Input
Amino acid sequence: MAETRVNIATVDPVWRRVCDEAEQAIHDEPLLGGLVHSSILHHKNLPAALAYRISLKLSSGEMSDQMLREISDEAYSSEPMLAEAARADLVAVYERDAACHRYLQPLLYFKGFQAVQSYRVGHWLWNQGRHDLAYFFQMRVSEEFGVDIHPAAKIGRGIMIDHAHSIVIGETAVVGDNVSMLHSVTLGGTGKEEEDRHPKIGDGVLIGAGAKVLGNIHVGCCSRIAAGSVVLHDVPPATTVAGVPAKIVGKAGCDQPSVTMNQLLPGKGDA
Output
C-alpha cells in the first residue's frame, strides 16, 4: 500500500504541463532555450524548479544563488505543503489572469507568483525560528519584486497577485485561500502597537488596485474591495465596499469574486 501511495504522489499533471509548454516555447523561440532549460527542463519536479528560480532571482553579492538554492531545497523537502500551495497559486494565476495563457508564464515571467513563492520559503524559515534569514528573504523579495510581505504573515493557497507592484502585507496579517489582489494593495496597521494589528482577509476575497485595508479588522469571505478604497472597519461576507473611507455599496455580485475578477460596482438594484 505504501508503494502505491508513493507512485501516485509522483504524478504531477501541473508539472507535466509546464514541461510540455517549455518544450513548445523552445520550439517557437530557440533563443530562449538556455533560460527554459535551466529554469524548467533541467529539473525533475516543480519544487526543484521553484528552488532554482527563487535562488536565481534573490541572489546578490550578499548571498550566493548556491546558498539560497540549498535553503529553498531544504524548505521544499521539509514541508510538502509549500509545493502544494505553489501548484494552487500557479493554477489560480492561469485561471484568473487574462494575460496568462500558459502555466509556464508565472514560473518564468510573473513577479507576483515568484514573490509569493519566495515569501513562502521565508515564512517556513520564520516558523523554524530562523528569523534573521527570513528577514533577509523579505528584504530581497522587496528589492527584486517590489513586494513587501512580512515573513510572519499567514497566507493561504490559490493566491493571485496581478502586476504585484507595491504590495505590502504586514506581520500579523492573515490572507485566506483563493484570494486575488491587484497592484498597490496594502494590508497594514494603524499605529505603533506591537500586538495583533493587521487585517484578516477571508477566503475568496477580491481586492482592487490601490486598496488599503488597515488595522485588525476582518474582511468576510467572498467580498470585494473596490480599487482605491480605504477599509477601516469589518466587511461582512459576500459584500462590496468602496470609497474613502470604504462603505458597503452592494452585494459581491457572484459566489466567487476572486475567481471571476469582476471589479465593476453593482448597480442600485443590486444594493
